[in-house]
Amino acid sequence: MSRVNPSWGSPRIVGELAKLGIQVAKATVEKYMVRLRKPPSPTWRAFLENHVKDLVSVDFFVVPTVAFKILFVFVVLAHHRHRVVHFNITEHPTAHWTAQQISEAFPWETAPRFLLRDRDGVYGPVFKDRIESLGVEEILTAPRSP
């Protein structure tokens, strides 16, 4: 019964057998039920292992100066070699400036397949358009993740 009706649980099978006059415990039915194996869904770790050569991350961090200014450092990291691909510094980051940095980081059709980034507002429509024109798929981190 479990093979023919995979959506039935053990209580339903016990009930159907009782209609036929067969008294069976629920535990016995569960012991002999055919279990359909679903392939496990890939995890984040599996994604990273499979695509580490095609994955780069971008992010900003701030540097306070002696003159009490804030500088924003844009960094592009390649995961397969654990190295900095590109970085640049600005006082006022914009989507246009960030899009230009991506173009400078990946000249001559060397863009990766995936770009991992956070949900910062500085990655505006201009940045997204530039990423799409390079043929790169954006992967966004979870909202409010550290």
Strand order of the largest sheet: 3-2-1-4-5
Q: In sequence order, what are the helices and strands, one letter per element?
A: HHHEEEHEHE
In total, how many beta strands?
Answer: 5
CATH class of the largest domain: Alpha Beta
**Uncertain runs:** none
Q: What would you report as the Rg, rounded to the nearest angstrom?
A: 27 Å
**Helix content bin:** 25-40%
Rounded to the nearest angstrom, the distance between the terminal CA atoms is 49 Å
CATH superfamily assignment of the largest domain? Ribonuclease H-like superfamily/Ribonuclease H
Count of runs of 4 or more consecutive helical residues: 5
Structural class: alpha/beta
Range of strand content = 15-25%
Shape: elongated
Tally of structural domains: 2
**CATH topology annotation of the largest domain:** Nucleotidyltransferase, domain 5
Overall mean pLDDT = 90
Secondary-structure arrangement, i.e. CATH architecture of the largest domain: 2-Layer Sandwich
Put the structure in a nutshell.
With 146 residues, the chain is α/β, with parallel strands linked by helices.
Characterization of this structure:
With 146 residues, this protein is α/β, with parallel strands linked by helices. The chain folds into two domains: 1-38, no CATH class; 44-140, Ribonuclease H-like superfamily/Ribonuclease H (Nucleotidyltransferase, domain 5, 2-Layer Sandwich), CATH 3.30.420.10. It is 31% helix and 24% strand. It has five helices and five strands. The chain has a five-stranded mixed beta sheet with strand order 3-2-1-4-5, covered by helices on one side. A hairpin with a 4-residue loop joins strand 2 (70-78) and strand 3 (83-90). It is elongated and about 85 Å long. The mean pLDDT is 90.
